[in-house]
Amino acid sequence: MNRTIGIVLIIIGAVMIIWTGFTYTKKEKIVDAGPIQISADRQKTVNWPPYLGGILLVGGIVIVVTAKKTS
C-alpha cells in the first residue's frame, strides 16, 4: 500500500513540476434584468508553485524506498 501511495505521489509531483497551472473559461452573468440577460466569458487561472511538485516528488521517492517488500 505504501509503495502505491509513493508511486502516485511521484507521478503527481512530476506533473506539477512540468505543468505549473492551468486556465479555464467560466461564463458569468453580468446583467440579469427580467428577460434581458447579458453574460461574458471570463478566464480563470489556477497556479501552484513548482517547489510543491518537488516536495511531492521527493516524498514519493522516500516512501517507495523505505517501503518494506512483501513476499
Percent helix range: 40-55%
**Averaged pLDDT:** 89
When the domains are counted, the total is 1
* Number of helical regions: 2
Query: Radius of gyration, rounded?
Result: 21 Å
Spatial strand sequence of the major β-sheet: 1-2
The end-to-end distance, rounded to whole angstroms, is 14 Å
Range of strand content: 35-45%
Shape: elongated
What does the secondary structure layout of this molecule look like, with pairings?
Blueprint: H1 2-18, E1 21-33, E2 36-47, H2 50-66
Antiparallel strand pairs: 1-2
Helix pairs in contact: 1-2
Brief description of this entry?
The chain is of the alpha+beta class and 71 residues long.
Would you give an account of this structure?
With 71 residues, this protein is α+β, with helices and mostly antiparallel strands. The chain has one domain. The chain contains 2 helices and 2 strands; from the N terminus they run αββα. The chain has helices at 2-18, 50-66, and strands at residues 21-33, 36-47. A two-stranded antiparallel ribbon has the order 1-2. Helix 1 (2-18) runs antiparallel to helix 2. The radius of gyration is 21 Å and the shape is elongated.
Which tags fit this structure?
single chain; two-stranded antiparallel ribbon; 71 residues; 35% strand; 2 helices; alpha+beta
